Every structure is written in C-alpha cells, then in structure tokens.
Amino acid sequence: MANIADNVKYVRDAIAEAASKTGRAPGDITLVAAAKTKPAELIKQAIAADVDAVGENRVQEILEKRPQDAYQGAPLHFIGHLQSNKVRQIVGVCDLIESVSSPALIESIGKKAVSLGITQDVLIEINIGREPQKSGILPEKTAEILETASRTEGINVLGLMSVPPFFVENERNCYYYDIMFNLFIDMSRNKYDNVSMKFLSMGMSDSYVDAILAGSNMVRIGSAIFGERP
Questions:
Q1: I need a labelling partner for 62 at 20 to 30 A (CA). Which of 39, 71, 74, 202 fits?
Q2: Is the pTM of this model over 0.90?
Q3: Which DSSP string do the residues of 104-139 spell out, in sequence order?
C-alpha cells in the first residue's frame, strides 16, 4: 500500500522547488489530491498529510464517499467532465467546480446556486490542445464564456483549468502550458463582474513540475499521492 504521507511530502518538496524557480512560495501552489477510485480511508490519510483540497472526477463517487466523511477537513473540488443532469447533485456540495465547459453549464449551475441561496465558485475548462475526445471550450471562446458568467447570478469564476496533451518530451508539454498561461494572463487583463483570474489549474502526476514552471498555481495529483490505479 502507498505511504500517503511520504508521497505527499515528496510532492510538496517538488512543488516547493519548482515554485522557488518562478519566484513564488510553496504556499502559492494549491495541491489537489485527485481521488478517483480511491476509498475514503486513503482520502482521509491524504487530508491528514495536509493536501490543500480533494478532487473527484465522478459525481457518483462523491455521493458514495461523502457520507463516509471522506472529505472532512479539506475543500472538495469537482475535476471531471460535468454532465448537465448532474449539476443539481454537486452545486453547493463541491467548494469548487473546476470543469465548467459551456455557457449552458454556467447557466445551469447559476440557476441551481440561486435556488440554494449561494454563489458557486467555478473554473472554466479550456481544451487547449483542441482534442476531440476531451471536454472544455476552445481557447478563442474563453472571453465569450466569461462574459456569460459575468451576467449569470449565482456564479463566481475563479480562473481557468486545462488538461493539455501529454508528451514524453518535456518541450512539447511546455508548449501547451505556455499557451495556456498566456491565455490566463490575457483573460486577467479583462474586467468582468463575477470573474477573478485567481487560479490556473493545470498539471498532474506526470507533469506538475513543468506546469508550475510554466505558471500553474493549482495542480491535480493522483497517482503520485495514492499510487497507480489498478
């Protein structure tokens, strides 16, 4: 079984080193433990080891693990593809929905949040590699969806999220990370209601150091914390 505490420390050390190279402190980088398929007990160990948040890809897993107090003590993020018929089950349950990928989802989330009397924090997911098998909006549509969010009650956009293409060669990964960071900076210059470019969420277990060096300040780490999935 993976030693969760040791793994978190290793990841934290790598984050600290990468952050220092970009003139940032370790605490400037948010570490999200990606808990897909992992049982509540392992998630509790990750929280005890001081991850900043827990991310889940599937609504059903949240519904199963939440009654087991799996997320007690850490913010819960939804990081998977979100279907419109699942919105009602996670608005107000997840502290941050990272994977909002269409104006229709913005409106659906906002409507549910208003009905609950809350404001839901979200990130906009960008399909930076233009990969047909992945969710997310195309980069050129980013301003348009942010404008939609600015007009939607119950929504608070905190930044952007992406799952860029992965290549063994670091240079090819960094190409997409740089494009994503430049988009993040461009959108930060615009002024919208309900929108603040606080987080750029990109980088996973096989690429988080490169992502941080490129400007990411939120990474989603699964196997490097929990071990490889079966």
A1: 202
A2: yes
A3: HHHHHHHHHHHHHT--EEEEEEE-TT--TTS-SB-G
**4-225: what fold?**
TIM Barrel (3.20.20)
pLDDT higher than threshold 50 for residue 1: no
Q: What is the mean pLDDT of residues 196-208?
A: 95
DSSP 3-state of 77: strand
Q: Which residue has the tokens 């914390």?
A: 225
Instruction: Specify the amino acid at residue 101.
Output: S
- DSSP codes, 21-53: HTT--GGGSEEEEE-TT--HHHHHHHHHTT-SE
Pull the structure tokens for residue 4. 């969760």
Domain ranges of the chain: 4-225
pLDDT in tens, 98-133: 999 999 999 999 999 999 999 999 999 999 989 888
> Residue 183 above 60 pLDDT?
yes
User: How many Cβ atoms are within 10 Å of 1's Cβ, its own excluded?
Assistant: 7
Q: Find all residues with CB under 8 Å of 161, minimum gap 6, and list them.
A: 79, 98, 99, 123, 124, 125, 126, 199, 200, 201, 202, 218
Residue 124 to residue 20: CA distance in whole angstroms: 27
In this structure, how many other beta carbons lie within 10 angstroms of the beta carbon of residue 84? 12
Could you give the CA distance from residue 201 to residue 79 in angstroms, rounded to a whole number?
10
Rounded to whole angstroms, the Cα distance separating 178 from 184 reads: 10
SS3 152: coil
What is the torsional sign of CA 20, 26, 29, 31?
Answer: positive
